Amino acid sequence: AKAAGRRTYQRYTEQMEWELRQRATLSGALRKVLENGELRLVYQPRLSLRTGAITGVEALLRWEHPYLGLIPPNHFIPLAEESGMILPIGEWVMREACTTLRRWRQHGLGTLNMSVNVSALQLLRGDLPRYVAKVLADTGVPGERLELELTESVVMAKAAQAAQTMQALRDLGVRLAIDDFGTGYSSLAYLKRLPITTLKIDKAFIDDIAQNRDDKAITHSIIAMARTLGLYVVAEGVEHQAQARLLMEQHCDEIQGYWVARPLDPYRCLAFLRNWRSGVAR
Ligand code: C2E
Ligand code: CA
Ligand code: CA
Ligand code: CA
Questions:
Q1: Which residues pair with 147 in a beta bridge?
Q2: Among 30, 141, 225, 265, which residue's CB has the most CB atoms within a 10 Å radius?
Q3: What would the DSSP string read from start to end of 85-138?
Q4: Which whole-number Å values give the CA distances from 10 to 14, 23, 163, 216, in the listed order?
Q5: Can you state the angle between helices 86-105 and 73-83, rounded to 10 degrees?
Q6: End-to-end CA distance of the chain, in Å?
Q7: Residue 24 CA, ligand 1 centroid: distance in Å
Q8: pLDDT of amino acid 186
Q9: Is 172:143 a contact under the CB 8 Å cutoff?
Q10: EAL domain location, by residue (predicted)?
Q11: What are φ and ψ of residue 119, in 5° steps?
């Protein structure tokens, strides 16, 4: 039993060492990610349940490393936040997303909105409103066409600090969404006080919405609450028609998820958007 315990322990420390080494490898590679041009954005469409139109897209980050392969954002964004690399990376994302939108706007997609994920550090330390204003001016994208997705936990934990930055962004016309809503510890009072325009209901609540009465009740009350507060509601991670139908019955404003479209590279996304407008898709 003792020997087995020792073996388990050894395996455990080996696993830990491997993970630490992998983290070190990733952190090292992450430092050069911008100069090596290894980042790209994919875009996931958002569908209005009221009009059936695609109203916008969310920009999602992809890191393609020459020999480590495609590294998912959930693996490297926490590392980028620890090292502060998320600041220059976040600026790259903002500029790239707005540059793409500028190009698409020239293809007749003038009312399309662009949503960009913004991390805690950017909101709290970065000179975010000034940078956003500069990117908007450089690309000619109106502030009203840009939405920033902020995670619930940050906004709530540092509400006072975040509120000023958020207001400065709103003054540019930029919309503000609370991302992954329902997973953190939002207080209604804060929600009311902060200049938020949109709630994105987390996928975790959407997954079983068609089978689970509790989840159905949760989305129903989130949507009702949002309505009371004058907020726009988006459901994320919609994979099936049954979920979409239910959310439509609950008067959810918009949905996003594989059922509408997967995240697409810019070329395929533009094709998707143009086909949708001409009524070819779905
Ligand atoms: P998120 O903001 O909640 O983004 C939604 C995630 O769910 C995306 O994963 C998307 O590909 C995935 N997804 C969308 N629809 C479906 C669906 O129907 N089914 C399933 N199973 N998944 C779906 P992704 O692209 O891996 O991004 C993961 C997270 O990484 C994002 O979660 C976001 O928090 C973060 N992230 C991505 N890009 C950026 C960025 O540019 N900046 C920052 N700070 N964070 C980012
Ligand atoms: Ca998001
Ligand atoms: Ca989300
Ligand atoms: Ca999520």
A1: 115, 175
A2: 30
A3: THHHHHHHHHHHHHHHHHHHHTTT-TT-EEEEEE-HHHHHTS-HHHHHHHHHHH
A4: 6, 20, 48, 46
A5: 120
A6: 61
A7: 24
A8: 67
A9: yes
A10: 23-277
A11: -85, 165
Say which residue the tokens 């003054």 belong to. 171
Task: Residue 36: count other Cβ atoms within 10 Å of its Cβ.
Answer: 11
- Contact assessment for residue 250 and residue 217, using Cβ atoms and an 8 Å cutoff: no
CB 255 within 8 A of CB 247: yes
Beta strand spans in the chain (E): 39-48, 54-65, 69-71, 113-118, 146-151, 175-181, 198-201, 232-235, 254-256
Averaged pLDDT score across all residues of the chain:
91
Q: State the ipTM, two decimals.
A: 0.97
* Residue 252: exposure state from Cβ atoms within 10 A (0-12, 13-18, ≥19): buried
3-state DSSP assignment of residue 267? helix
Any atom of ligand 1 within 6 Å of the Cβ of 237: yes
pLDDT the model gives residue 59 = 98
Alpha-carbon span 239 to 260, nearest angstrom: 8
Decide if 237 contacts 205 (C-beta within 8 A). no
77 Cβ inside 6 Å of ligand 1:
yes
What pLDDT does 280 receive? 47
Gap from CA of 78 to ligand 4 centroid (Å): 15
Q: What are phi and psi of 94, to 5 degrees?
A: -60, -45
- Cα dihedral sign, 166-168-171-173: negative
Query: Encoding tokens for residue 144?
Result: 């009203």
Alpha-carbon gap, residue 215 to 179, rounded angstroms: 18
179 lines ligand 1 (CB under 6 A): yes
